[in-house]
Automatic annotation (TrEMBL), chains A, B:
It holds the Pfam family HGTP_anticodon. Homodimer. Keywords: Aminoacyl-tRNA synthetase, ATP-binding, Cytoplasm, Ligase, Nucleotide-binding, Protein biosynthesis. Its EC number is 6.1.1.21. This is Histidine--tRNA ligase. It comes from Kocuria varians (Micrococcus varians).
Length: 452, 452
């Protein structure tokens, strides 16, 4: 893939790469719909006010304004900007349409988002996210925190990617623990714990003492919590051994045990309780999820999310939610750059109908129409070049079959179809012939399936 | 549809409306792929320079810039703006990737575009277009002008919309005719002819004389040409009767006759030669298409396009193209506002698995997994409310079936499924039960099919 795009951070795929991306998108849609999630799309733009409500990411936001702006434009509707995720727009959508939705409302949303970040591997300025969320009106049973993990495990398992691990933690567990040891500024502690992988335990311990005012013992306890990582609910015992007691901690332990217990039974090896996870704990209020591809940990999380006690609210109503978001472009970029999967051909066409002479174009269209009626993607040659040239054209495009129609001197019509890979050519009836199932559509082959 | 969106010109659909839109998008994709077109997506942004190359629509373009822009930003990559169609981005894509594409290159592209126009019925600021084009390297046989008309007739025929007519004209025909009668400024004549429907023939005749300097006879001839409209190739005879002779005119007559002759045979009544069509003739170089829904002519064209002798070019290479673009949002808005079609239910789910008690959630997930394995969209109740409440929840969401699992005192498990529309409840096996085919997916019912 020596090809570079003309605008850094805005990836574009070649047709055969796009087939892989579409396979991923189709697969996600199928899983989400099988789990009863409705599709929603929101507009690409929000008001700047709406986008910046949750915090300080304004540097990353792309503003939008007409090149020849009236003075009225922003006065009328506020300044506009491109959405940087699908959560903020969805929260607005829920508030605006809550009278038309049935709660708990299950939606998936697959759209592009934009962030003006410095482009680098795994980070684009325009990229596709695939979100699922369940939103309640007033309350939302905790069970959805379990269910959403299972939905995403299903969704990721169906993709042509390496094994993955869903890491789960819980804000209540962490915050309750910190309070239990006398550290009340949970966000500050989490900020330091978040640096563990980068700077190591010793440096974090020093920071906790210098920046957060922890004692050496408090720092050690916080680090001991962050060291716990189990594939089952044994983390509960491990936390108890640290001898900290706090009501919120107990609530968090019970919640995380429910997620990990159920998920580890239903999808063994796909989920871990990972008490070092700090990212996201500052804005989620309970469960928090992130996901890494085994062997590709440095790519960062490919599927993250959590529980918001207040995803959205109107004056009167509160809407709690839980959900996760897959970084589709990040996944597809990795799939393509590491040749984890490839399209079986670069075009949808299974058949090219060759032209015997220029006058046969309309008859060739009849053949194509008959084939398409049975779902066989077909194109017709535009000019009656030599058959060898027409076959080479099919070859270059990866079309497996070329169709020949000949009209005898007595006006009788005969058809033959050639598999240009084997060279085998056989008589065929346009109203009945069927290609082998594996040739009907362009498919996506994973490395294991790849005959090459 | 009393519901209004919070940002004028940026339509958003409710889940049941989105199902109709998805049906339209899926149907278009299917048709395009059956005809051998590859999917391509381009980034949402282009450089302003790229977007404004073709003319003076800068008022409609949305510029994009980071809210906290570095001085470097636009210096490095030029000012950015949202694309306002899919043709300009596709032309750039072809130039950038021509070494990786096989020509003639057939692509479809379904994406949102943005225009800062005043919102009104049929005109949004954010809307979806579905384009098909064939692009050649150096040359592109005229046959594709015929084929592309047939592709779009197929695509539109599969949608839940009223009968439509594809109107076709040809730039060479019009320009050749005008030259033949001594009017050399074809664009100026076309600008006046374009006003025919709005201001009438007399006013256009006056304008042709006042603004273009035509004689009364020239004006009458130009209007006589624009009055020709035939469902077959008889327009050729009608033009000849006007007694104008010009080489370019002959070329245009032959081309238009080929499109209309073939299309009227293969799709009777769907195509007309309409010599009044002037819009687009200034930038297309041969065939030009537009499409109206019968009875909804005031909606404007829902599918337009034409032939460009130079869709794109590099220093060395020229890429001619022919293609059409469907205004998906315009169509979907009309389908919904006139109730031409509706979703059979608002959610994908065919089955809600009820909870007997809170402890049965995991067993209910087993049932759901078994159903999903056979492609049956299923959700599980989150709490063990009274059955009546769980059934009402399914009812409100339009889910046709509710599943009940009971565990006997001896540990034996039995399953029943209830069709909540008929009330019929029967024993069922989660590994074998199948809903009626019409209930498997949310489907889209047209007015005729609608039992309501």
């Amino acid at each position: 893939m020596a090809r570079t795009t003309s605008l850094s951070g805005f990836p574009e795929w070649l047709p055969e790469e796009r087939i892989v991306e579409q396979h991923v998108l189709d697969s996600l849609r199928r899983t989400f719909e099988l789990h009863g999630f409705s599709s929603v799309e929101t507009r690409a733009v929000e008001t700047v006010e709406q986008l910046l409500r949750k915090g300080e990411i304004d540097k990353e936001v792309y503003g939008v304004s007409r090149l020849q702006q009236d003075e009225n434009d922003s006065a009328k509707e506020g300044s506009l900007a491109l959405h940087f995720d699908l959560t903020v727009p969805f929260a607005r959508y829920v508030v605006e349409n809550n009278g038309y939705l049935t709660f708990p409302f299950r939606r998936y949303q697959i759209q592009k988002v934009w962030r003006g970040e410095r482009p680098q591997e795994g980070r684009a300025r325009e990229f596709t996210q695939a979100d699922v969320d369940v939103v309640g009106d007033g309350t939302l049973p905790f069970r959805y925190d379990v269910e959403l993990a299972l939905v995403m495990i299903d969704a990721l398992s169906a993709l042509p990617i390496p094994p993955f691990v869903l890491r789960v933690n819980n804000r209540k567990l962490a915050e309750g623990f910190y309070r239990g040891i006398g550290l009340d500024d949970a966000p500050a502690v989490l900020r330091e714990i978040d640096k563990l992988e980068k700077i190591g335990a010793d440096a974090v311990a020093r920071n906790l003492q210098d920046a957060v005012g922890a004692t050496g013992e408090q720092a050690r306890a916080a680090l001991a919590l962050a060291a716990i990582r189990t594939e089952d609910t044994s983390f509960v015992e491990r936390v108890r051994e640290l001898g900290v007691s706090n009501e919120l901690l107990e609530e968090g332990l019970a919640e995380l045990a429910e997620v990990v217990g159920e998920a580890s039974q239903r999808a063994p090896g796909k989920v871990v309780a990972d008490l070092s996870i700090a990212r996201g704990l500052d804005y989620y209020t309970g469960t928090v999820y992130e996901t890494v591809l085994v062997g590709h940990e440095q790519l960062g999380s490919v599927c993250s999310g959590g529980r918001y006690e207040s995803l959205a609210s109107t004056g009167k109503k509160n809407f709690p939610g839980v959900g996760l978001s897959i970084g589709v472009t990040r996944l597809v970029t990795r799939i393509l750059s590491q040749s984890m999967a490839r399209a079986s051909r670069s075009v949808p066409s299974a058949v090219l109908v060759a032209l015997t002479d220029d006058a046969s174009w309309s008859a060739a269209q009849d053949v194509a129409t008959a084939l398409r009626a049975r779902g066989i993607a077909t194109e017709v040659a535009a000019t009656a070049q030599k058959f060898g040239k027409q076959i080479r054209h099919a070859e270059r495009r990866g079309i497996p079959f070329v169709w020949f129609t000949t009209v005898g001197e007595d006006g009788s019509v005969s058809h033959e179809v050639k598999d240009i890979r084997s060279g085998e050519q056989v008589p065929a009836d346009p109203t009945a012939w069927q290609p082998p199932a594996e040739d009907l559509h362009a498919t996506v082959l994973t490395q294991d399936q790849d005959p090459a």
